[in-house]
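ok so i was messing around last nite and threw this chain in just to see what happens. nothing serious, just curious
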Amino acid sequence: MILRILGWRDIPVPESVRERVPACPDLDLLELWAERAVRATTAEDLFAGE
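result:
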């Protein structure tokens, strides 16, 4: 869903992000990334502060 949100918002998603998001086993982290995807201006914004 995170990748779809970015796509719906016409935010380019590099291959590194396409690989990292589905590989994440941490549901809390995925929820955080989903929240960030709604406000992100770049795909890399998902990982801000890490």
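not much to say yet. The radius of gyration is 10 Å.
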